[in-house]
Every structure is written in C-alpha cells, then in structure tokens.
Amino acid sequence: MSAPFTYHRQGRGRRLAAILLVIWVALVYLWAALDATPWILGFLALFTLPGLNDLIRNPSAGLSLTDETLSWHTGRRSAEIPLEEVDYVRLDTRLDFSVRATAVLKTGRKVRLPFESTPPHQAFEETLKDRGIRTERHHFTLMQ
User: 64 and 134 share a domain?
Assistant: First the structure.
C-alpha cells in the first residue's frame, strides 16, 4: 500500500500580483506620460480581469492519487475515478510546453484533467508508474 500522492495549489500568488502590478503601472504610465487614449488603455486593462479575479477569490485546485482512486478539484468542480476503471493516462505536451493530462478509461472514454489541478508532469508520471498505471507521452506535432 503506497502513501497517497497529493498536489494542491492556490490561485493567489506573488507572481500573479507582481504581473498585474507591472501591467497597471505601465498602463498608468502610458496614460500620464504619453497621453494615451483612455478607452484603449481600458480595453487593455480588461485582459487583466481574469488575473484580478483569481487574486481576489483565491481558488484552490488539487489532485489526489490513492491506491483506489484518482480525484481532483478545481474551484467548485470536483471528480473522482476509481483506478480500476483507468486504462492509461495520456500526457500531451502542447506548443507552449505545458503538459495536459487525460485519463483514458477502459471503456474508451477520455476524461481530461483540468490543467490547474494537474501536478508537475515528471512527478505525476513517476507516481502513476509506481502505482502500475500505464502512461503515454505525446509531444506536439504541427501536422498529423
């Protein structure tokens, strides 16, 4: 019997706060020093709203892998799959070098794990292999 593998993260972080601060300081600078049009700056500021929402709400996300189940949560959503139903876990590397995880069930159904609740792929893949769950790695391709 193996110890449970758990991964947890919060939406609020110093990096997010620093990025938002830099963007807003740049927008204020463009407005004050360069007399940029306020409606254009307002449009650009709209792109920071999802980050501001994460900073204020601080949603949590995580994943737990026990000997019996694979479960995850993100925000208000959560799910659980018995390991006996999982055929393999597919790890796809995207063009931005992020890794997405998909649990492929023995019935052929694919269940995509939310990106924000997926742990770092090396540790996750090693833990899956330790529990006897087959993994498949797929790197991005531009043409199929």
Answer: yes
Same structural domain for residues 119 and 105? yes
> What 3-state class would DSSP assign to 133?
coil
CA-to-CA distance for 86 and 55, rounded, in angstroms?
Answer: 35
Lookup result for tokens 């899956």: 128
Q: 39 with 18: CB under 8 angstroms?
A: no
Strand partners, 123: none
| pTM (predicted TM-score) | 0.76
CA 28 to chain CA centroid, nearest Å: 31
Q: Which structural domain, as residue segments, surrounds residue 116?
A: 5-9+60-138
According to DSSP, the residues that pair with 82 across neighbouring strands are 69
Give residue-wise pLDDT tens across range 54-68: 899 988 999 999 989
